[in-house]
């Protein structure tokens, strides 16, 4: 029994002398909890705790941000996305290109304009999703302009093709809209498109809320990509807050008092008085009392000055 307890506490890191001393005082039949309490009371510490180095300071990571541990990366994700202050951007390439081409030509230059606009704002995670068959030579029923831009964006790991294949001469195309919404939803980003994706909203209730709150519409004005300043309406967030992971709240604007200097509410007035920015807002009665006290004190000083020889 003595040897078994001695081995047990030695494994915990306590010294043999301290263990033997405690066992002699408490007896060989003492419980392990009692022995451990006595070792702690004596001030004996496990050697492992004394010799182990102090743990390195942990870095606080905001909830919802990407972890610093290496994980699965897909669609060309790089490490700079975790420190990015802007939301990831997923562009509906077909919608943007056809919109720039006036719904007649697949204009790749429109995709380039949209990518450049987000790059200038500082976004690092930008993905353009286009069906694979757009890589084929253009036909009369589907003309493509500036097709070389797709190759350049693919080399920059910005453009991603959705898969497709031919079965018995017929092309089998995957639904690119589902790719767009899925990538943006999993990355907690923004969808750039004028499509409302109503079929996908009915398919998945979680996607319904996401599409309603994270869909960024746009317009092309003279080869200029222009999203709205109020993506969610007049009472919604600004474009800067809409594209940021941490929106900045606007500073409160104080409304000036409509009565101005004639206001009789004093410190109870809820409006801003520019004529007294650094003074305590006193009521009218308190202001009159203060003026009377000042006038009385000045009168007493004059009387004392006149009476003095």
TrEMBL record:
Residues 245-276 form the C3H1-type domain. One of its GO terms (cellular component) is nucleus. Keywords: Endonuclease, Hydrolase, Magnesium, Metal-binding, Nuclease, Zinc, Zinc-finger. A zinc finger (C3H1-type) spans 245-276. CDD domains: PIN_Zc3h12-like. Residues 62-82 are annotated as: Disordered. Its cofactor is Mg(2+). It comes from the Eukaryota. One of its GO terms (molecular function) is RNA endonuclease activity. PROSITE patterns: ZF_C3H1. The keyword Cell membrane does not apply. Belongs to the ZC3H12 family. PANTHER family: N4BP1-RELATED, RIBONUCLEASE ZC3H12D-RELATED. This is ZC12D ribonuclease. It comes from Hemiprocne comata. The lineage of its organism: Eukaryota, Metazoa, Chordata, Craniata, Vertebrata.
């Amino acid at each position: 029994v003595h040897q078994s307890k001695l081995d047990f506490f030695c494994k915990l890191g306590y010294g043999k002398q301290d263990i033997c001393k405690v066992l002699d005082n408490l007896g060989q039949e003492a419980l392990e909890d009692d022995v451990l309490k006595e070792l702690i009371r004596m001030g004996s510490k496990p050697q492992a705790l004394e010799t182990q180095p102090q743990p390195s300071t942990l870095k606080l990571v905001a909830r919802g941000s990407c972890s610093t541990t290496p994980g699965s990366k897909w669609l060309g994700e790089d490490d700079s996305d975790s420190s990015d202050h802007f939301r990831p951007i997923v562009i509906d390439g077909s919608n943007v290109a056809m919109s720039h081409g006036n719904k007649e030509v697949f204009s790749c230059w429109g995709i380039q304009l949209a990518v450049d606009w987000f790059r200038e704002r500082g976004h690092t995670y930008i993905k353009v999703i286009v069906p694979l068959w757009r890589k084929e030579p253009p036909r009369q029923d589907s003309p493509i302009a500036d097709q070389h831009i797709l190759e350049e964006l693919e080399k920059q790991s910005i453009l991603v093709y959705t898969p497709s294949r031919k079965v018995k001469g017929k092309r089998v195309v995957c639904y690119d809209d589902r790719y767009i919404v899925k990538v943006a939803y999993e990355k907690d980003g923004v969808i750039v498109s004028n499509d409302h994706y109503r079929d996908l909203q009915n398919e998945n209730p979680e996607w319904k809320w996401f599409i309603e709150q994270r869909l960024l519409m746009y317009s092309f004005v003279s080869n200029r990509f222009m999203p709205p300043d109020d993506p969610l309406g007049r009472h919604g967030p600004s474009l800067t807050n809409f594209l940021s992971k941490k929106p900045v709240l606007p500073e409160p604007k104080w409304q000036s008092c409509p009565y101005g200097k004639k206001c009789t509410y004093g410190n109870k007035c809820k409006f801003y008085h520019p004529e007294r920015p650094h003074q305590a807002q006193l009521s009218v009665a308190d202001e009159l009392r203060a003026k009377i006290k000042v006038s009385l004190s000045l009168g007493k000083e004059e009387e004392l000055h006149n009476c003095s020889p």
